[in-house]
């Protein structure tokens, strides 16, 4: 579990790999690159890569606008100062840590 003091999501979701890179800073390290888990990314956005690809292929401007708004809301989630992240670290130094779960501090402490 990590309680970041700052999260900076990359501006764009990688559609090919269905991933989002986030730079995380906590009390011990600064600007550690992490990747949001594919299933978590789908849950947070409310749509998956296939849905977005279909909207792009069909040039469905209404649906693309909805997807864009949801992606902007994702930035707001990472801007919160009370986040607790469940992160999976790989023993391989060449792979990024993966954010598997996001909660707020109150929920993590079972206060609410």
From TrEMBL:
What does the organism's lineage look like at the top? Eukaryota, Metazoa, Ecdysozoa, Nematoda, Chromadorea
The identity of this protein, by name, is RecQ-mediated genome instability protein 1 C-terminal OB-fold domain-containing protein
Organism, by scientific name, is: Panagrolaimus superbus
Which is an annotated GO molecular function term of this record? nucleotide binding
RecQ-mediated genome instability protein 1 C-terminal OB-fold domain spans which residues? 16-105
User: Known Pfam families for this protein?
Assistant: RMI1_C
């Amino acid at each position: 579990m990590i309680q970041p003091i700052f999260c900076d999501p990359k501006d764009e979701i990688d559609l090919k790999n269905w991933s989002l890179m986030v730079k995380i800073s906590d009390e011990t390290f600064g600007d550690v690159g992490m990747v949001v888990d594919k299933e978590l990314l789908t849950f947070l956005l409310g749509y998956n890569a296939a849905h977005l690809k279909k909207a792009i292929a069909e040039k469905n401007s209404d649906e693309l606008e909805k997807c864009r708004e949801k992606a902007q809301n994702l930035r707001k989630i990472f801007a919160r100062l009370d986040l607790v992240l469940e992160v999976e670290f790989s023993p391989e130094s060449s792979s990024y840590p993966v954010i598997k779960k996001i909660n707020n501090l109150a929920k993590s402490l079972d206060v609410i």
